[in-house]
Amino acid sequence: MPEGAARHLLKVLRRGDGDAVVLFDGQGHVAEGVLCDVVGMQGNVTLGPPREDRSAEPPCALHLGLPLLRGERLDVALQKACELGVTEITLLQTERTEVKFETGPRGARRLAHAEGVLIHAAQQSGRTVVPALHPPVALAAFSEQRSEPLKLVLDPEGAPLDRATLGTPVPEEIVLLTGPEGGLSERECGALSGQGFHRWRLGNRILRAETAPLAALATLATLLGDF
Fold first, then answer.
1. What class does CATH assign to 61-223?
2. Nearest-CA neighbor of 214 among 111, 62, 101, 99?
3. Cα angle: 52, vertex 54, 55; to 5 degrees
4. For the whole model, what pTM was predicted?
5. Residue 64: left if φ>0, alpha if ψ -120 to 50, beta else—which one?
6. Contact 191, 144 (CB under 8 A)
7. For burial by CB atoms within 10 Å, which of 14, 147, 179, 227 has the most?
């Protein structure tokens, strides 16, 4: 197992020889096993045959377009998005995005850290599929490529979302865009509307950039029958 996973299992959870464990590959497969030969932070796992288990996965593919957020706010948004069933995440640069994403080794480290957040969230929530994470792209480039049957963007000036808007049967794929600190500009919202995005007004209050996607995903889960 990776060092981080082994440390969590042996030090945090205090598992030892003979304890049962369940491992997952992040692609929807699990295998039951037994710990053995544990010495310090090392040991072996005797594994049984793998099996497919997607019981904790959402009823449709959920692609989240998430603008870059500052520090721990991004970690929180990624963690909770995974717990709420997102299957794919693309980080976005928008007109009002103030966080800069550096390329090169530093950018690679930031992406690796974000992927680790998603892995830990999947472990905690019992998911067997880790959401795919894509590096930052411009909002316009991202939105132009979207072909999902249902496209949503959070907008305080938009309209509510109900079960009828989702359609029948439930779409197999949904994309959800949320705004950065300060929100998306009117120009951006107008362009997205022209590309077929439903401008979704989520309640009567303005939510923080790390709160809005979580509230939207929880609402979607309820409408989709996932809660």
1. alpha beta
2. 62
3. 125
4. 0.89
5. beta
6. no
7. 179
